[in-house]
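Fig. S4 source data, part A: sequence.
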Amino acid sequence: MKLRKMWLNVNGANRMFICNPEKDSLSTILRRMGLTGTKVGCGTGVCGSCSVVLDGKLIRSCTKKMKTVKEYSKVITIEGIGTPNNLHPIQVAFMNCGAVQCGFCTPGFIVSSYALLLENNNPTREEVRDWFQKHRNVCRCTGYVQIVNAVMDAAKVLRGEASVEDITVQMPKDNEYYGKPLVRPTALSKVCGVADYGDDQELKMPAESLHVAIVQPKVAHHAKILKIDTSAAEKMPGVVKIITSKELLEAGGTNIMAEAQFHERTTVMVPSRKVLCDEKIYRYGDVVALAVAKTKEQARAAAAEVKVEIEKLPEYLNYLDAVMPDSIRVHEDTPNIFSMQPVLKGVGLEEALNVNDVIDNSVHSVSGSFYSSRQPHLSIEGTTVQAYFDEEDNLAIQCKSQGVYSTIGRIGNSVGIPKDKIRIIMNPTGASFGWSTNAGDVCLAAAAAVVTKMHVALSLSYEEHQHFSGKRCPCHSNGSVACDENGKITAAEFDFGMDHGAYSWGGDDIMTKPARFAFFPYNVPNVAGLVRIANTNHNFGTAYRSYGSPQAYTLSEALMDMLAEKAGIDPFEFRYRNIAREGETNINSYPFRQYPMEEMMNIMKPIYEKAVEEAKKYDTPEKRRGVGLSWGGFNVTEGGTDSASVAIELNSDNTFTKYDTYQELGQGGDIGSLMLTLEALKPLKVTPEQIKLVQNDTKLCPDSGMSGASRTHYMSGKATIIAAEKLMNAMRKEDGTYRTYDEMVAEGIETKYFGKYQNTSVEGLCRLDPNTGIGDPTPAFTYCLNLAEVEVDTATGKTTVIRFTCVDDVGKVGNIAAVNGQAYGGISHSIGFALSENYDDVVKHSNMLGAGVPYIKDVPDVINVIHYERPDEIGPFGSSGASEAFQSAGHVAVLNAISNACGVRIYEMPATKEKVKAGLDIIAAGGKVEPPKKYFLGSDLYDELENIKANPVKFGGDDFFIPLGNDANAERFF
C-alpha cells in the first residue's frame, strides 16, 4: 500500500492529509477530516447525497478517486456553505419550505443548489429540476416539490428581491400553532450537515471499537448449507472473530428471532428466521456469518474469505411457482400457503357461490387478473447499526427502528440477553418507509457485541442492504365486479395471492389489509373474497407505507375503470354513483367510520373535468394524453388493543420536557410531537422554545408504539392530552392560575406525569372474523381521491406523469408543511411503483438506479394536494392519521390514465415503457390488450371458500397473538 501526503483547499482553508490515492474517494477523505455532512448513500454515484463542489464544478464525491484530484484543488462541502449560527439563505429556505424530512439527502441537495445558483441565480422551476436530474440528486421522502420551492425562495434572496425574514415562517402571535408550518426541531442540524446518522456515529465511536461485515454468500435463493469454512478468514489481518451460529449459541443466544401468530388460520408452528443461517439458505440475501475486525476494510476483506459450500434446492421465486401442487415446502413445519382470510358479505354469507350467480346475472360485469410488484423501499441511507454495553450493563443498540420497543420484542432470546437489559436507541435516521420494522440487522450487531463483549459497528454496502432488507409483498390477484343497468355495483369477487418471501413473520397480519381495502370506499352489497399468503424463496415481505392496501387497489380500482367502460359510464361518474353514503357498509359488513367521500368527489369534479378537457386538447398521435382516477385510503391505528404512552415534565426553568417514542424517520416524529404538545399545553401559553423533546430511547422514554399504520399522531396525541391534563391539573391553583416549578416542589407535588391511551376505550372495535371477514378493527380511516394526468410517447412507450391531484381527508392537519411533505412523498412513491420500481432481478435491481428509483423528472412538479379537513370525531384535536393513504392507490390512477390515453391497460406492474410499447404494437396490429390468463392461486376460489365454511376456526379474540418457539409462554412482545 503506497500512501500520499496531499493538500486540499477545503471550505477556504488549506488542509494537509494522508491518503491512499488508488483506493480512497474524495468523500472518504472529507469524512475522515470530520466533514460528515458529506453523506454516502449508494456508494456508486447514483443518489447525489455525497455532492460537493470541486474546483467550481458539482461532483458526486463517493466515486471520485483521490488519484484523479489535483493538489490544492478547492472543495466546498455543506459545512462551508453555512453553519447553525450563520445560515446560508438556501439552508433557511430548505428549513422553512418543508424541504427537510429525513434529511439524509439534504446536504447533497443544498450543495447542489449552491452550485446551481452560483451559475444561475434566476432559474426557472424547470431549470432547477433539470439541474437535479443531471446531477442525480435523489430524495425519497419529499416528492421534490418543496425542494424546488426552497431553491426558488433562496434565489429571490440572493438576487436581493426578498430578505431572509421574508422566506422564514413567522410564529403566530395568538399562540394558535396547530396546523401551522412550524419548522421541524431537527431541521437545523440536517441543513448544516451536523446531524450524525448511523455511519457518522460509527466514524466517531471510540478508537478501539470493532467493525462488523456480513458474510452474504449470494450464491442461491434456496440451498442446503453443507459447510461454512472460516479458516482462511480467521487468519486475515486485524480479524478479532468470525461468528457463525455456533459462536452465538455458545454465547447463550438461541439464534432464533422471536415470532408469533397473528391469525387463527395460520399454520406456521415454529419461528421461520434465524439470525445467522446454519442449515439452509432461504433467500439470496441471507447472512451465514459475521466478520469482526479492527477496521471496516479488514472486516470486509475477511468476510470475503469465508467459504460456503451448498447444495442447491428448488427455488420458488414467485407466488405462482410456490403454490403449484408439486412444490416442496419452503419451511418444513408449514405448507407454503400459511394463512388465509375470507371475506363474505350479503348473499355470500349464505353461500359464497351465490355471489358468482349475482355477477353472472348482472347487466354488466368485468374480470381481470393483476400483479403488483415487489416494491423496494429505496431509502437513501441503508443499514448501519452500533451496539455496545452501556454504564448500566445494558446491551445498547443504536439503529434505525420504526418501533424501538417492538424491536426488543423481535430480538427475543436470539442473542441471550434478557429483554429488560436491552436498550434500543434510534439514531438520526435516513428514512425507512417500513423496512426497519424488521429487526434482523439489529440482531446481527447485537450478536457481534455479545460474542466479542466489545462495542461494535455494523455497516452494509447498499447492495448488501438491498438484498438483506425486506420489500413490499408482490401480489397476484383475480377478480370480478358487476353492476346493474344504472351503474350501481351488485357484487364483487376477489382472490389475492400474496408473496411473503422467505420468512413468515407478519404475513398473517398484512393479509388482512386486502381483506379490508379491496373496493374501498364503495358500497358493494355482495362479496366473496379470499386473501392467501405464502412463503417463497425471494426476499421476505415487510411493512411498507400503506402496508397491504396497494395490492388491493391494484385489482379493485382497475376493475372499477374497466366496469365503467363496459357500462358506458364516465369513470368519475361511475365512482360517484358507487361511493358509500351514510349508513352503507364496507366489504366487512360494518358502516364506514366516516363518510367524506361525496364531498371529496365534489371538490375533485371541476378539476377532473378540466383535466379531461386538456387531455383532449393536447392529445396527438405521437403524444397521447390521458386522465386516470383512483380511490384509496387506509386504517388509523393497529386496532382495538393498540396503546401509546408519553410523559411530560415541568422543568426547573419552567420549560417542559416531552418523552415519547414518536419515531422520527422523516415523516415528522419531531414536529408531530411538538405540535401535539403545544396544543395540549395551550392553556399555559407555551411556545415552541419552551418544549424539549426526548425521544426514541427505551431507557428514557415510555412506549408510544410503532411509527406505522398511520397511528402515531393519533395514538400519541391522545396520550399527550392525558399527560398534559394531569400535569396542568397538578399545576392549577384554586384561583385558576398555574404553579411554577418551585411552587410545585415546595408543595411536594410531582412535576412529571404519564399519559397512556388505549383503543379499548373506543366502542365496537373488533378484529375480522377468521371465517367470514366481518369486523371493524380500527377507529378511523384516512381517504384519498387521486387524479393522474399522463402523456404516453407512442414511439417509445414511455409514460410521463404531467400533473397529479389528490383530495384527502386526514382530519385536522397538525402541521401543514409536514402533511404536504407526506403527500408529495407518498405520491412520488406511487408513481415509481406504477412505472419503474421493482426488486425481482437480484443483479439488475441491486442499486437505486437499477431498481427504478424516481428522479426528479420522473415526478411532476405540479402535485396539487387539497385537504378536505373534516375534523375527526374522536382524533386528537380533530386530527387523524396521514401518511399511509397517500401511497395507497395513486399508482392505479397512473395505470388508469395510461389506459385512458392510449388504450393499453397494464395488468402486471410496473408499467415500463417496453410493456406499454408492446401494447401499442398489439393495438396497431388490430389486436386488443388482454389480461393475463387467470392465475392459479392454490385452489379454486369457491372451492376454498367452501372448504373454509366446512372447517371453521374458533375466533381467538381481539388480542389474538400466539408467540412461537422458545417464547411460547411469553407476554405479547409486539
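Fig. S4 source data, part B ends here. The mean pLDDT is 97.
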